[in-house]
Write a structure and sequence with these properties.
The protein has 7 helices and 14 strands. The chain is α/β, with parallel strands linked by helices and about 270 residues long.
């Protein structure tokens, strides 16, 4: 990876950061799920873990320190909200529980299926080719609304939204495994998870961003870093980091096979 642009000017001043802020100036204190590959993991192998190291280096911090908490209701309240950590590395723009930085990537839910199967060319959930197929989808995620309109939920296989991935595999991994075993014909999955687990499976799979849906739920999301509403200087520091290191961030995400989208919904490939 190329050397990061020095951001000494971005660092917090001595003490507890800027006036009125509780950001640790010496360590990057990260709030994260301990078992949520490809995002974060106690092994340090998630792309958010690698991104945290980039942020720590660029802002002059000596180390990354984690507060681990599973991705369940109460995550923000018990981590960032309790001042136990200063940053959530990946958070969807617009959620009022945190203050969002500028987005550092844009991705979407995708439809994934075997490239050599009879679904070749399908780009939307309304495609007639899906009418008699069994589609896997996680309960309560945006694709379920569009699948309901297309009358696909009657045969759908529904996977649980909240699982303890310290004990059970990611539902994205399970869905892809089920598809390869013939249990389902296709799956609608959040893009970063689909890209990672599709590559891990070793199978030749089509990963189609659901960018051509007409109506229904939003499928495309901007992903930011989440900070406390009071930490305005910290947000500006992170925005500067994102701006000056976007190319390196993209390179990291692409190495994990995240389907990146530009502002015109076109794939970013390099």
């Amino acid at each position: 990876m190329a050397t990061l642009i020095p951001l000494q000017a971005y660092s917090q001043s001595a003490g507890l950061g800027a006036a009125g802020e509780l950001v640790d100036p010496d360590r990057l204190r990260v709030c994260a799920d301990p078992s949520n590959i490809p995002f974060s993991d106690q092994s340090g192998e998630g792309f958010e873990d690698k991104l945290a190291k980039m942020v720590a280096t660029a802002t002059g911090r000596s180390a990354v320190a984690y507060t681990w908490y599973p991705s369940i209701p109460g995550f923000v309240r018990n981590t960032l909200g309790a001042n136990r950590c200063d940053i959530i590395m990946g958070y969807a723009q617009g959620d009022e529980l945190v203050q969002n930085t500028n987005a550092y990537y844009r991705s979407s839910y995708v439809l994934i299926y075997k490239k050599d199967g009879d679904l070749a060319g399908v780009e939307t959930l309304a495609d007639p080719k899906l009418a008699d197929k069994r589609i896997g989808v996680v309960q309560g995620t945006p694709p379920t609304a569009n699948m309901a309109v297309a009358k696909l939920m009657r045969k759908a296989k529904i996977y649980p939204l909240i699982v303890d991935t310290r004990i059970t595999p990611s539902m994205a991994e399970v869905m892809i495994r089920d598809m390869l075993a013939g249990v389902i014909d296709a799956a609608a999955i959040w893009g970063p998870m689909a890209g990672y687990y599709a590559r891990k499976s070793g199978a030749d799979l089509a990963i189609v961003p659901l960018t051509k849906e007409k109506g229904g739920q939003r499928m495309i999301y901007r992903i930011t870093m989440g900070v406390r509403p009071s930490d305005q200087q910290w947000k500006r520091t992170l925005n500067a980091f994102i701006k000056d290191n976007q190319a390196e961030i993209n390179k990291l995400l692409l190495s994990y096979h995240v389907p990146l989208l530009d502002e015109h919904d076109e794939r970013i490939t390099q």
